[in-house]
Amino acid sequence: MIHHLKGTLIEKSPSHAIMECAGIGYYLHISLTTYGQIADGDIRLFTHPVYREDAQLLYGFATTGERDVFLLLLSVSGVGANTARMILSALTPSETVQTIASGDSGSLQKIKGIGAKTAQRIVVDLRDKIARANVSESMSGSTGGSLRMESIEALMVLGFSRPAVEKVVAKVIAEEEATELEAVIKSVLSKL
Predict the structure, then answer these.
(1) What pLDDT, in 10s, does the model give residues 64-110?
(2) Which fold has domain 4-61?
(3) What pTM did the predictor assign?
(4) Is-contact 131 101, C-beta < 8 A?
(5) What CATH number should be reported for the domain whose range is 64-135?
(6) Which letter does DSSP use for residue 17 in this model?
């Protein structure tokens, strides 16, 4: 129903943000990932409403990639909005995708409120969906997105598998703040 909100950040905490848009204040539940990405002033948050018998809640996300992962998590039986938010507070969206794609239910179990059965169900239910939908392409966020994808595609042409290069490319872009394709590829090749 509500795709995104653009307005002024009035208040933020690790669990929620209050935005004023056209004179209306919106209370949005957010993850720690989003909390770390939003700054004071004018912002835009992508949203997802959750309607329950006793409440109407609005969840906010700094990127569409985070919202996509949130929606995937909600599709798993037994995973509600608060559990999905907890997962996205403990892991970034790309880490969540990589954890699920690699079948690492142990990492999910370390998150508060996630038991062994729920972690295994998340991995089993979403592993194929992530691969089919190529969710990892939307994890790039607002910076380095096309550079990241171009780097991954170039390395795949050289014969490397996607899972092997995704993590290294993301690390190189984040740590070395590389802005040119050639520099990223050279650095990744030295680390593989």
Answers:
(1) 889 999 999 999 998 999 999 999 999 889 889 988 988 888 889 98
(2) OB fold (Dihydrolipoamide Acetyltransferase, E2P) (2.40.50)
(3) 0.69
(4) yes
(5) 1.10.150.20
(6) E
Nearest-5° angle of CA 50, CA 120, CA 166? Answer: 85
Written as six digits, the tokens of 155 are: 């390395």
Helix (H) or strand (E) holding 186: helix 181-191
93 Cβ partners below 8 Å, 6+ apart?
33, 63, 65, 66, 68, 69, 139
- Residue 44's SS3 state is strand
Q: What is the CATH number of domain 143-191?
A: 1.10.8
User: Tokens representing 119?
Assistant: 């972690």
Closest CA to 179 of 137, 157, 158, 148: 148
Q: Which amino acid is at 111?
A: I
Break the chain into its structural domains and give their ranges: 4-61, 64-135, 143-191
What is the separation, in whole angstroms, between the first and last Cα of the chain?
44
Cβ density class 171-187: b for 16+ within 10 Å, e for less: ebbeeeebeeeebbbeb
Q: Among residues 85, 168, 82, 166, which one has the least CA distance to residue 130?
A: 166
C-alpha closest to that of 79 among 47, 54, 111:
111
